[in-house]
Amino acid sequence: SEMRSEFGRSKQWYQRRVRGSVNEAALCLQEEIIANPVDGNIGMIFGIGHCPQRGGPFQFLDTYGAQNFVDKMRQYEEDIGFRFEPAQIVMDYANSGKKFMKS
Question: Which of 4, 58, 61, 86 is the most buried (most CB within 10 A)?
Fold first, then answer.
């Protein structure tokens, strides 16, 4: 009960944190701070240890789905605030069905 509630809050916090850093990586690509998604994955994995088991932020976006990501970020944006506004590049990829990583 109380333990389950605490775990739920902790899991929600972690999911928001991960999605926030994925969105920041997408903004770096959008603003040409990084050259491509592979560089973003490598930088986030080796730089801050981001989701190595998932292949980095852009692999996460492709696996989770850009549209699912945008929907979840919109929900966070509504509940928490503007800092969860999804990056335009992710919205563009969601609309076109395009993937960040080449197969």
Answer: 61
